[in-house]
Design goal:
There is one protein chain. Helix content is about 40%, strand content about 20%. The chain is built from four helices and five strands; from the N terminus they run E-H-E-H-E-H-E-H-E. Helix 3 runs parallel beside helix 4. The protein starts with 12 loop residues before the first strand and ends with a strand.
């Protein structure tokens, strides 16, 4: 298809949600390829889920979740560094989809590259609950990687 106008894509900031699933790492790999092509920067993003109030300060949960997120970001930094791509990370607490959309829009990302399914227990027919939410709610373009 030939478009009647010249369309240019300018991707400088890519947001990649990471949850240690294979799909999120495939999303990172796609983002790395795009970052190399467009000389873009990647931000790895992880959301630690809100806990019920009575469990919120439970040291085993909070320490393990934080450590797992940090380890995941270390792996992502290694993958991006090997390809000479700038990488930074952000770990927040909250509702995954909502925090992701909010962060992407507030920080003027050009693209969200997300795995089609994560490690969550909710299994939807075609898309994971977070990728489905983000694709419908985000004003930032979304690339869903299978």
């Amino acid at each position: 298809m030939i478009l009647p106008y010249s369309m240019t894509i300018n991707v400088k900031k890519i947001l990649v949600p990471l949850d240690a699933s294979e799909n999120s790492l495939r999303g990172l790999d796609y983002a790395v390829d795009l970052a190399q092509k467009y000389n873009a920067e990647i931000t790895g993003f992880n959301v630690l889920p809100n806990m019920l109030e009575m469990f919120r300060d439970s040291p085993p949960y909070t320490e393990k979740a934080q450590k797992d997120a940090e380890n995941m970001m270390t792996e992502a930094r290694k993958r991006t560094t090997e390809k000479n791509v700038k990488f930074q990370d952000k770990i927040v607490r909250g509702s995954t989809g909502k925090e992701l959309v909010k962060f992407a829009e507030e920080n003027n990302f050009d693209l969200i590259t997300i795995g089609s399914r994560g490690i969550g227990s909710a299994k939807e027919a075609f898309l994971g609950s977070v990728s489905n939410y983000v694709s419908h709610k985000s004003n930032v373009p979304v690339l869903i990687v299978k």
